[in-house]
Amino acid sequence: MQKKLSNRKNEISLPVKTILSFFLSTLFGTVSSLLVSFLFSFILSNSAEISDYTFVYLIFSFIIGGFVCGFSGSSMLQFKGLISGLMCCVPYTIVMYILMFIFSNGKLNASSLLSVLVIVVSSSIGGITNANIKRRK
């Protein structure tokens, strides 16, 4: 009986674990998106035609960040698939939308809405991919 009580004290409650997984998946997605953005900014700094590829690189970094967010969040949550990918993309999308608002000097347009759509789709694909991967024992 004491072992069961001591195990209950060491367990993390479900809402705290869910919030922690949302936070960590948002952190992983944001960091991966920023790393890809830094890589592309280095590529663009050595290129002569900067304006042609900037939006494509931005969308690609959002795809990578959204996928990592959905994949990592789905692996931390008990349920996997589309729903966990969508749930984990909400905080990541809010963070990215705030960053886009700050760096665009308060001007949001159709490209920022397209970016949000790309994040939602790629995060959903990340959650589905994690659900369909066969685990090695």
Can you characterise this structure?
It is a single chain. This protein is mainly alpha-helical and 137 residues long. The chain has 5 helices and no strands. Helix 3 (54-76) packs across helix 4. The model is unreliable at 1-6 (pLDDT under 50).
Biggest pleated-sheet summary: none
Q: Point out poorly predicted stretches.
A: 1-6
Shape: elongated
Q: Say how many strands there are.
A: 0
Proportion of residues in β-strands: under 5%
* SS content category: mainly alpha
State the share of residues found in helices, binned by percent.
Answer: over 70%
Give a short overview.
The chain is mostly helical and 137 residues long.
Characteristics of this structure?
disordered N terminus, about 80% helix, about 0% strand, about 140 residues, 5 helices, mainly alpha
